[in-house]
Amino acid sequence: xxxxxxxxxxxxxxxxxxxxxxxxxxxxxxxxxxxxxxxxxxxxxxxxxxxxxxxxxxxxxxxxxxxxxxxxxxxxxxxxxxxxxxxxxxxxxxxxxxxxxxxxxxxxxxxxxxxxxxxxxxxxxxxxxxxxxxxxxxxxxxxxxxxxxxxxxxxxxxxxxxxxxxxxxxxxxxxxxxxxxxxxxxxxxxxxxxxxxxxxxxxxxxxxxxxxxxxxxxxxxxxxxxxxxxxxxxxxxxxxxxxxxxxxxxxxxxxxxxxxxxxxxxxxxxxxxxxxxxxxxxxxxxxxxxxxxxxxxxxxxxxxxxxxxxxxxxxxxxxxxxxxxxxxxxxxxxxxxxxxxxxxxxxxxxxxxxxxxxxxxxxxxxxxxxxxxxxxxxxxxxxxxxxxxxxxxxxxxxxxxxxxxxxxxxxxxxxxxxxxxxxxxxxxxxxx
Length: 432
What we know:
Oligomer: single chain
Number of helices: 14
Helix content: over 70%
CATH superfamily: MFS general substrate transporter like domains
Radius of gyration: 21 Å
Distance between the termini: 17 Å
CATH architecture: Up-down Bundle
CATH class: Mainly Alpha
Shape: globular
Largest sheet: none
Order of helices and strands: HHHHHHHHHHHHHH
Number of strands: 0
């Protein structure tokens, strides 16, 4: 992977903001998962776990249009700064609710806000990234793939690392405070590190991430949803990007279903259901190995793109995502589950980072915020769809041959039929 862009000080500052926030995400999510899904008094089934995915992601899909127009009107650096500070404040309230064992509507609302703000931050970082790089010419496009691979994969690794840190700290607190207090302390720590991520955004200048002065749109924000439809129609014309986003959404849909399956298998089958701590440790190990696969997938992506081109690499990666779910359909055991997570993460990251670079290079900056909002909405619907389908198929034990077989079949059909060469509207040279 070419890492020459690391000498770019603005890219380093952007990575510092992104990775600090995503490390914090991992700590926060581990505490939330422990509180909601791995508490002794709360034994989840597939439907309750799927509901958690839907509650977290669907509301953002409805505010996504507003997010997109904001990113194309207001300094993205300022948005990232204040969104991090706002999320830090939000987590203080969540910590108080968790400490008191609250699981009602008030906790749900604050969690929705926290995750919605997070998507705004990531969309802003992705939309602004190309402005920090020279993306002209073949070398520039290859650099964009490399920097996306580094940013996205490094962020994923940070989420996994943060989850491990959260579980480690929680184990240290075991016996000293009760489970809810331990989770609340972790969320308080997350609030402090989100504050740090916000302060790191001050290292970038107000205009560094765009939108550029001549691109700032003056229309009322109330037109957001109309503009979102226009952005979707615009995206449909750029078929390369539309198909790449669709492939990413489908891959993430299957990955979410497999995650739900892994959660239930570790919680209720591979470990004693009365000992949720062992289930959490098993699930964390599976996610960590998947994170290793994600890292390797990102390292391979620039080389794959250089050899085959972006479109073919997305197609081959989606085919590869189907291999291990076929084996998992034949038998469910801990080794196969971990290997499936590893290969699905590796191949899926090839789809994701390659498509991110494709969208960034082909979409003009004045539309990029709204297109990334459409991107997020489509992927979110894919994730929620995967969770809902899994909820109807999986028993409480998590044991199922049908679900991984269905995932593999979906990947193969879309890669074979949807990602045919003739479906794209640009050439297939290695730099496209």
